[in-house]
Amino acid sequence: MKLADLQVLAQFDLLAPQPLFRVQHARARAGTVKMGRGLLLLPPSHLMGGRFDRYGEPVAYFAERPETALYEALCRREATGVSYTLLAQRALLSVQTTAQLSLLDLRPHTPSWPVLQSLRFDQTQGLAAEAHAAGLAGIVYRSAQQYGMDCYALWGPALTALHRVSLEGLLEPHTGNLHGALATALQGSQVPLLP
């Protein structure tokens, strides 16, 4: 898939301050890429495991709401369960943008290009490479996990144009109670909570 394949090339300006949310590891592990003075903990860029990943450059995925971030990361359609062990290792990061970011807007193309929500990542990663070459700071796209919600893939200088609002564990440390957004996502997805 190429930018030239799209009937309309829409640009979306993500204004500041815009709140964004992501689920990430609570602590850095071996190979973790730290961005923004340790704000973002990202997988190594050569893994190419995300829909809009770019080889050799970190990409961070965000959602417009905490629940959407949880649907995307943990409560996916194909998930058969989520364990307490996994939840204890993840955190919900809330940030705000500090600058206007110009993004490729793929939302108008979702109905006619199902590949944008498929697992054929080589196609969407190629599109991300072209968007980067066109000088865009990322992509806005529809969530494949929560109807009508937006997600963002950001790269390059966009990753330093973020200010941390909060970093919350998905389990309360003393009680083990679920974060409210996680409880909502688990209920909506009907993904079972496992020991």
From TrEMBL:
InterPro entries, A to Z: RES_dom (IPR014914)
RES domain: residues covered: 35-166
Protein name in the entry: RES family NAD+ phosphorylase
Organism: Curvibacter microcysteis
Lineage, broadest ranks: Bacteria, Pseudomonadati, Pseudomonadota, Betaproteobacteria, Burkholderiales
